[in-house]
Predict the structure.
Amino acid sequence: MVEVKLPVLPTTVIGSYPRPTWLRRTIKLWKSGRLEDEHMKEAFNDAVVSVLRDQEAAGIDIPSDGEQRRDEMVEYFAERIGGFRFYDPIRIWGNAYYRKPAVHAPLQYKGNMVVEEFKFLRSVSTRPVVKITITGPYTIADWSFNEYYSAKDELAFEIAKIVNKELKALEEAGAIYVQIDEPALSTHLEEVEWAVEAINEAVSKTRIKIGMHVCYGDYSRIIPYLENLKVSQFAFEFANRGFKNIEVVKKMPEDKELGFGVIDVHNRRIETVEEVASGIRRMLELLPAHRLYINPDCGLKLLPRGTAKEKMRVMVEAVRKIREEIKGDGPVIRT
Amino acid sequence: MVVQAALIGGFPRPFNIGRLMSRYRDGKLTSETYEKKIRVELFKTLRRIADSKVSIIPFNMFLWDDIFEPFASAFEGVERGGLYRFLDNNFYYRVPVVKGRIKHREATVTQFKMVKNIIRESKLRLKIKAVIPGPYTFVKMCENKYYSSEDTLVTDVAEALGEEARILEKLGARFIEIHEPLLASGNASLELFKKGFETLTSKVSSETWLQTYFGPVNQFLEELVELKIDVFGVDLVEAPNQFEAILGLRGKRGVGLGAVDSRSTRVETVRSLRMLVKRASENFSRVYLTPNAMMDFIPVSIAYAKIRRMGVAVGGFRNG
């Protein structure tokens, strides 16, 4: 059994972090066939160390590897699961694009997808807990074109079996904290009931602490389903909406924690410490400190690296300020 | 009888165009270079669309980031805010934040003129629609920090959008395409919709094309027939059951059959599309075969494959 005590209001990230410029150039070389795989691997590892140090220097308690190896959260997994194919990229907003995969054949687990990421991150981080992220079965199903399965739920349950295999492999490798990303969960209310079952299937028979991230949707639509989800934490975005409707968290089941999004990742303006602290104070009127983790709204990858780092520094400084104002123990991760 | 293929709202912005736009927005391209390149790309897209036998296009094509973008940027009293999910899609729009009294300022005229000129100079057989978000959908999807009542807000939004439509009409827009997906949301307020729609359409004399998507509107048909709607654009992918009710409308009014799935890579068969068109042409003197919504949600290669099928499906019907 593993038990790790965390400080009150532990700070973490949602997952992605901007890639260093040199890494982006290196990837271009590699994709054009002008760099060997082993050198690319070395560059990815070095990039993880770089962005991990950014996070640790900013004071983040639970860092990630910044998803440096992943171009996109669905695409990365679709490339590693048999049965997917890709067309040209599609736009998601502004001029941001992603390669939306299409399922054209039965899905197959071809082997570990993120276990090596975890092992490397664990080996280079100075923190007792690190976070590894996996895109959830519902979001992969919703953000893929389905050309093979008769219905979306059938597709989602197939993906859930694959995610479950990966979670078990992560557990075997020593992971204690994994975040399932399900940003699509709040989009189709009529599907939430079976989506919850699919997520539960994905996390079944694992002892890892599981968080779940949902963003940019109407949380009031999914709150009634949260108690049925076999995860212990929900990471929600609130800064982008100006902390509007944060009262919704009062309806969360009492045994669940909240990863409170306090940094807007779609705005390059750097928040002030007081702005972030005031958001946290408002949240503390709604939920006790021992149920709160503090994080940005979402992945930081679209920000310039310096901006991301500064935003993390501000977030940590705001948390430190609040820690001086409140007393109490932080959460404990037990697996 | 008129049977034609038409597009709705927008077309996928190819990746290379997106990169071009980003470079321009980041100040890495001069406006002259940018406009020159965009015109070339627009021409290529328009020519491929015309070659597919699509007859009517929205002018905005791949130019807008989202349906609200130009208006939220230009209108007095509105600013662009945070990213919000566009309905239930993995596609996001910058929410229009209403911070003061909304007043019209030209938002899309330059783009409209550019597209119109390209079509005229290249002698492409394409008619253009002006595209605007419906006042009701605008009100429901914006963040209102100024108006104390939705009634006043919808009126001011409709006045401003109507003024834009009036200018585009003078510049030669064949239709005013009004996007009201929120009318198909299942819990729409018909009164508020009507108030906005009537205010807007009172400012224009060209034909109006009401476009609804991602749900049915057949529950409102009785009231909608009383409005100035020249073409009913309906979603037959997400709400196929409304087809029979729509057929009941008959008459001179046109129908937009949203039968091509703008969110799926499965390309429809010509046969299935033709069957719908044939059926509708028995009741309507004008039938337009369209995607069920804007096509931004699918890869551009798939969008071209789909519109080629649309062109084939409407071929052979006697127009005139």
Observations:
- Chain A has one domain: 9-69+113-327.
- The CA atoms of residues 250 and 286 of chain A lie 6 Å apart.
